[in-house]
Amino acid sequence: MSWEKGEQLYEGKAKRIFSVKGKNDVLWQDFKDQLTAFNAQKVEQLSGKGLLNCKITTLIFKYMQGNGVPTHFVESIGETALITKKLDMIALEVVVRNVLAGSTAKKFGIEEGKPLEKPLVEFYYKNDSLGDPFMSDDQALMLKLASPKEISDIKILALKVNDLLSELFKACDIRLVDFKIEIGRDASGHILLGDEISPDSCRLWDMKTSEKMDKDRFRRDLGQVKEMYQEVWNRLQKNWSQYV
C-alpha cells in the first residue's frame, strides 16, 4: 500500500508523529537520532540511532504479532519510519523487571543484578512535567486512567510480552533485565501494545560478560552506544531472520 506523510502532530523525545494523508485510522512515526536520559535533562544526537531502533522495533513487533500479542504495528516505511494504528494512549508507562537494576536496586539498597523470583510489574504515570512518578493500581484507578479490567488486562499483556521478549533475547545470548512498554486502546476499545521496544526502552546485558547493551551506556557515560545498539540488531537479525 502507498502511504503519504501528512502534517506533524507531535514530537517526542525519540519520535515525530505525523498524520497519513487520506487515512484517519493510522499514523506515521519517524524515529529520531536523539538520545535522552533523566527526563531529557541529558540530550545528545547519535547518527543512525533512529534507523537501528526502527529496525529493532519492527522485528520485535512482527515477532509479537506472530505470537498472539496485538500491537499497533502496520508496516515499516523506508529506514526510519513506521505506519501504526492510531490508538488512544493510556497515560501509563508499564515496566516489567526480571532483575533489579538502576534506580530500583538503589531505592531498596540491593546490589544491582539480583534476579527476582518472579517478574515485577510496575506502573508509572506518564507525565513529563511530574517526572513520570511511580503509581499504584489504585492511583491509576483514582485518576481514571484505566478501568479495573483494563489494569488486569495490561498486567497480563505485559507478562506475556516479557515471556516472549525473554525468549527472543535469550536466543541472542542477551539477558532481558527490564523493559518499558506503553499501551493504548484501538477504535473498538481493545488493548494494544504501542510505542516502541528497543534498546532505548529495555535493559539488555550480554549473558556471558554482563556488558550493558542499552541506553544505560548513555546514561552512565560508558561510550559505544551506537556500537552496542548495532550489536543488538546484528544478533536479532541473525537469530530471527524470519521477522526481518
Helix content: 25-40%
Structural class: alpha+beta
Tell me the distance between the termini. Answer: 19 Å
Uncertain runs are none
Using only CA atoms, what is the Rg? 17 Å
Number of strands: 13
What is the general shape? globular
H/E series: EEEEEHEEEHEEHHEEEHH
Percentage of β-strand residues:
35-45%
The overall pLDDT, averaged over residues, is 96
Report the major sheet: 6 strands, antiparallel
Query: Oligomerization state of this entry?
Result: single chain
What does this protein structure show overall?
The chain has six helices and 13 strands. The longest helix is centred in the middle third of the chain and has 23 residues, at about 150-170. By secondary structure, it is of the alpha+beta class. The strands form three sheets. Strands 8, 9, 10, 11, 12 and 13 form a six-stranded antiparallel sheet that branches. Strands 1-2-3-7-6 form a five-stranded antiparallel sheet. A two-stranded antiparallel sheet has the order 4-5. A hairpin with a 2-residue loop joins strand 2 (about 15-20) and strand 3.
Short description:
By secondary structure, the protein is of the alpha+beta class.
Any descriptors?
single chain, 244 residues, alpha+beta, six-stranded antiparallel sheet, 6 helices, 30% helix
Layout: helices, strands, pairs:
Blueprint: E1 5-11, E2 15-20, E3 23-31, E4 34-37, E5 42-45, H1 49-66, E6 73-77, E7 81-85, E8 88-99, H2 102-107, E9 115-125, E10 134-135, H3 137-142, H4 148-170, E11 174-185, E12 191-194, E13 202-206, H5 216-219, H6 225-239
Antiparallel strand pairs: 1-2, 2-3, 3-7, 4-5, 6-7, 8-9, 8-11, 9-10, 11-12, 11-13
Helix pairs in contact: 1-6
